[in-house]
Amino acid sequence: MVFFNRVTKIYEKTETKALNNVSFYIDEGEFVFIIGTSGAGKSTLTKLMLCEEKPTEGEIIIDNIEISGLKHRQIPYYRRRLGMVFQDFRLLNDKNVFDNVAYAMQIDNYTTKEIRRVVPNVLSMVGLSHKAKAMPYELSGGEQQRVALARAMVNEPSILIADEPTGNLDPATADEIMQILEDINKRGTTVIVVTHATDIVNKMKKRVIELDSGTMVRDETGGVYSNDC
């Protein structure tokens, strides 16, 4: 679960209030869109969930951990409990598809035998079994994002956070990526998608949490990007 309790984030150097008294609860197994225009607070909220920032006020509890109280040395271990997918893929260009996905398991000290068993299964889940030996530069943008999804899921995180996962993709490929995310969610993983992709939010009609100028202005089940739609 993810719990934001009256969270405020002020950047002291600029005195910018990026988030103001934001509260919401995401239960295990939910699929939630976090939406808002540029500057609404989406990036700050994502950074808070990843412990890249700490709140000025309030508490954040993720997977039963009060993360704002974590010490610096504890943060890498906390992050391994999450799956994270970015708009720019962040693949290792000197490693092939198999090794990009395996790398996440190597960090967690899985054995070679375990890696050889698990990675093919995850690549199959995202439809890339036939690309295991391909290098990132040989892949399309959609295929690279599938690798990123496989890497995020290989350690079976309870929560997957996707930050603008379709931002660099054409509409058809974006739909394919969202279908994979929905399939991942159906397996029991909590999925949080931070996006400004109007069409996708409108099509999927999941729970929508909307931010505006750092304030949460809407929390709607079966919502669309805009109530004007």
Textual characterization of the structure:
The strands form two sheets. Strands 6-7-8-3-9-10 form a six-stranded mixed β-sheet, with helices on both faces. Strands 2-1-4-5 form a four-stranded antiparallel β-sheet, covered by helices on one side. The chain is 32% helix and 27% strand. The model has no long low-confidence stretch (mean pLDDT 93). It is globular, with a radius of gyration of 18 Å. The relative contact order is 0.19. The longest helix is centred in the C-terminal third of the chain and has 16 residues, at 171-186. It has 229 residues and is of the alpha/beta class. A hairpin with a 2-residue loop joins strand 9 and strand 10.
Largest beta sheet, briefly? 6 strands, mixed
Strand order of the largest sheet: 6-7-8-3-9-10
Structural Rg = 18 Å
Total number of β-strand segments?
Answer: 10
- Helical percentage: 25-40%
Mean pLDDT, nearest integer? Answer: 93
Shape: globular
Going by helix content, strand content and strand pairing, the class is: alpha/beta
Number of helices in the DSSP assignment: 7
Strand content: 25-35%
Order of helices and strands: EEEHEEHEHHHEHEHEE
Distance between the termini: 30 Å
Query: Low-confidence spans: pLDDT under 50, at least 5 residues?
Result: none
